[in-house]
Amino acid sequence: MKKQALVIGLGFAGSVVSRILADSGYDVIALEKRAHIAGNMFEYERSNGVRVHLYGPHIFHTNNEAVFSFLNRFSGFYPYSHRVIGKIDNQLVPIPFNFTSIDRLFSKDIATVYKTKLSKAFDLESRVTISDLFDTQDPDIRDLANFVLQKVFVNYSAKQWGVPFDQLDSTVTSRVPVVIGEDDRYFSDKIQMMPLLGFTDLFERLLNHPNIAVNLNSESNRRIRLHPDSGKVLLDGIPFSGPVCYTGPIDELFDYSLGALPYRTTEFVFEDYDVNCLQCTPVINYPNEEKYTRISEFKHITLQEVPDKTTILKEYPMPYHYGSNMIPLYPIQNPDNKRKYEDYLRLGKSYSDLFFCGRLAEYKYYNMDAVVARAMQVADDILSTPKYD
Ligand code: UDP
After folding, report:
1. Is any atom of ligand 1 closer than 6 Å to the C-beta of 177?
2. Is the peptide bond before 96 cis (omega within 30 degrees of 0)?
3. Shortest CA distance to 96 belongs to which of 283, 264, 266?
4. Which residue CA neighbors atom 11 of ligand 1 most closely?
5. Is ligand 1 within 6 A of the CB of residue 157?
6. Model's pTM, two decimal places?
7. How far is CA 218 from CA 40, 268, 324, in A?
8. In the chain, % of residues over pLDDT 90
9. Cα(272)–Cα(294) distance, rounded to whole angstroms?
10. Span from the CA of 188 to the centroid of ligand 1 (angstroms)
11. N or C: which end of the chain has fewer CB within 10 A?
12. Does residue 332 have its Cβ closer than 6 Å to ligand 1?
């Protein structure tokens, strides 16, 4: 009899696991509750012909060559270095904050002092955090750090996370550094590429395998149940005898028995315009006055040419309420939530066929490349588990 695996969720985590298991001879039953594959990377073409990312801009970047060469099997890629500008004091300046941002926001004399001191304190072209700037103890660098903190981070983060900046986990805010130099790319990874025909196309190829049965509109909580007495996962009431890779929200799998894990979500507001370009740059961040955090104009990310048409997306962050039809987007990393997650994970350990993978199942703010790497690892773990031989 052929080996079977069950995969819940077809974002990157579930799709990569499905493909690797299918390539190794497993028959994979994949359940996806949405009407489409690709999770939050889903792209589609609007009626004006502009392709957009339905759940906000997703930019691929990595230093992990194994991840990139795996994905290369399923799509061509074009070079794309993401650039973001931010509206600060009514000026548009590069984010991450860099020497050009300093030049645009300060008088020539002050800018020279800041740039000279930064160049002495740090390696040129390095990327440092705000706390690295504070740690220098130099009063001018600390003044600059305070400026960047207030104008770039404090209000943006309050909007995005709904809590004061000092309550945020440093792993969140250190995602956006300060650049000691003029590099205005948002990321510094060696590989900065985007799938030629978009993420949905990549996912279609990833899942296009005779051993993978994709079931859309399949709410996993209607089809799978945990059976604590046997330690088995039931599919449609019948014990499933192979590995089960769960990529949905871990609290939902356990019926929120230990309480809901909190998330932030975003209201995505798309606007179409009959002009060739509106802001004419991929993303503008609005750290301060506006209610939205950023506006993306997709043509400048996909590099698609659609004359006299464009679509922008405004992102309004808000709290997520479980049980609503909101989408849990950002896990809120703090010690209490981490503890609650660990407690759920402990419950999961009683089910030896159950493997957790991805942002929702691991309650982790993953970049795309990291989730692909993790999924490759989970698939390897499954393939090297003796009982599945
Ligand atoms: N951030 C900020 N100001 C900015 C950009 C980012 O304060 O202009 C902070 C904010 O807390 C945000 C985090 O850095 O949530 C990570 O930003 P990133 O752009 O990586 O967020 P994502 O694209 O994942 O939403």
Report:
1. no
2. yes
3. 283
4. 157
5. yes
6. 0.97
7. 17, 24, 17
8. 94
9. 16
10. 15
11. N
12. no
In the predicted structure, residue 1 carries a pLDDT above the cut 80: no
Length of the chain counted residue by residue = 389
Tens of pLDDT, residue by residue over 336-351, are 999 999 999 999 999 9
What is the C-alpha to C-alpha distance for residues 353 and 239, in angstroms, rounded to an integer?
Answer: 11
Q: Are 121 and 136 in contact (CB under 8 A)?
A: yes
Q: Is the CB of 80 under 6 A from ligand 1?
A: no
Query: 245 exposed, middle or buried (CB, 10 Å; 0-12, 13-18, 19+)?
Result: buried
The full set of domains in the chain, from first to last, is: 4-37+207-258+333-388 (3.40.50.720), 96-179 (no CATH)
The CA distances from residue 30 to 6, 115, 219, 247, in Å, are: 6, 53, 11, 11
Which atom from ligand 1 is nearest to the alpha carbon of 59?
A: 23
Question: Rounded to the nearest whole angstrom, what is the distance from the C-alpha of residue 78 to the centroid of ligand 1?
Answer: 25
Does the CB atom of residue 366 touch ligand 1 within 6 A? no
Whether the CB of 173 sits within 6 Å of ligand 1: yes
* Tokens 């990874």 belong to residue: 189
Which atom of ligand 1 approaches the CA of 95 most closely? Answer: 8
Q: What's 161's DSSP letter?
A: H
- Which among 129, 171, 175 is the best mutation to test ligand 1's pocket, defined by most ligand atoms within 8 Å of the CB? 175
Residue 35's nearest CA partner among 200, 196, 240 is: 200
